[in-house]
Design goal:
By secondary structure, the chain is of the alpha/beta class. It is 30% helix and 24% strand. Helix 2 crosses helix 8, helix 3 runs parallel beside helix 4 and helix 3 packs across helix 8.
Length: 311
């Protein structure tokens, strides 16, 4: 079994490679060449908000993986990431574990990759401005992915913490795109809006979003969290990464027709007009984890990276 640390995996994966790997996995999913059990998730019975998720999947030609992830917001006060993640990659031919790898940054990269694929299919072809709500690691990878599928001219960011906005602008200046601080309302005036927050109340409002906008929502993944208001949900054409999206507060009680993203990646057209408002709601899938873990493993074996251990 190959052990891969955070520094190992960070040295091996790029956004461009991740987008190709994730696209391949979802095309396989569209053809019925996957096994994708429902995500198991639950809250611990503690006074603190503590969430756990277990996400297994099989993709033909890539193997089988299971990600174990948790979210403990209390850790932020100690200067630690709230999210923890580990991916186990298995050989579907032998039944053996092939690799164990840190999944924190991989989760952000594979999320950015899938959202970029969705935006490429759903956003207007002339979309060139981005508004980002929340300036954490997920938002960074979202912008990195969008920069791969659109020629961006301007990015506006908002976070409840000014220091987070400053750090985001400093980190993402490498993309060569104009990035500036904005307000909670100002970021909604963009061609593509990304909500990457830990909010339990809406931050995207239907009355503020202009016709033709594409919105990506990745923050609200539990029933008591929400990023999108009811007015927006009533206007949007909805695409989801999986049926697990119905466990989020954003889709609670949703009666509208929704489309799963593998259909869009395989060629189904959702946008009929440049005035349509589109939404990609993502809570994360194990299919993405299989794709990114297999990509990292293959690169690690080729480069001689990681530590082999015998259990």
């Amino acid at each position: 079994m190959l052990l891969l640390s955070k520094s190992d995996v960070d040295s091996l994966v790029s956004m461009g490679g991740a987008i190709k790997a994730v696209e391949k996995a979802f095309l396989a999913h569209a053809k019925g060449k996957t096994v994708y059990p429902p995500k198991t998730q639950f809250m611990l019975p503690t006074k603190e908000w503590r969430w756990w998720g277990f996400m297994p999947a099989y993709v033909e030609g890539m193997g089988l993986a299971c990600k174990i992830t948790s979210e403990y917001p209390e850790k932020k006060s100690k200067g630690l990431p709230a999210l923890s993640s580990t991916i186990i990659l298995c050989d579907s031919e032998t039944g053996e574990v092939k690799a164990l790898m840190d999944g924190k940054n991989l989760t952000a990269i594979r999320t950015g990759a899938l959202c970029a694929l969705a935006a490429d299919r759903l956003a207007r072809k002339d979309a060139c401005t981005v508004g980002i709500i929340g300036c954490g690691i997920q938002a960074r990878r979202q912008l990195e992915g969008l920069a791969k599928v659109r020629k961006l001219k301007k990015v506006k960011v908002y976070d409840v913490t000014a220091a987070a906005m400053d750090a985001f602008i400093a980190d993402m200046g490498k993309l060569g795109v104009l990035i500036e601080k904005s307000t909670a309302e100002g970021v909604l005036d963009a061609d593509i809006i990304v909500a990457a927050t830990a909010s339990n109340k809406p931050v995207v409002f239907g009355k503020k979003v202009k016709p033709g906008t594409h919105v990506t929502s990745i923050g609200a993944h539990t029933s008591d969290s929400r990023e999108l208001d009811s007015d927006f949900m009533g206007k949007a054409l909805i695409v989801i990464d999986s049926l697990d999206c119905f466990k989020s507060g954003d889709l609670k009680g949703c009666k509208k027709e929704v489309t799963e993203v593998q259909e869009v990646i395989a060629g189904k057209r959702i946008r009929k007009s440049d005035k349509d408002i589109t939404l990609f709601k993502s809570v994360g899938t194990a299919l993405q984890d299989v794709a990114i873990a297999n990509l990292v493993y293959e690169k690690a074996k080729k480069a001689g990276v990681g530590n082999e251990v015998i259990l």
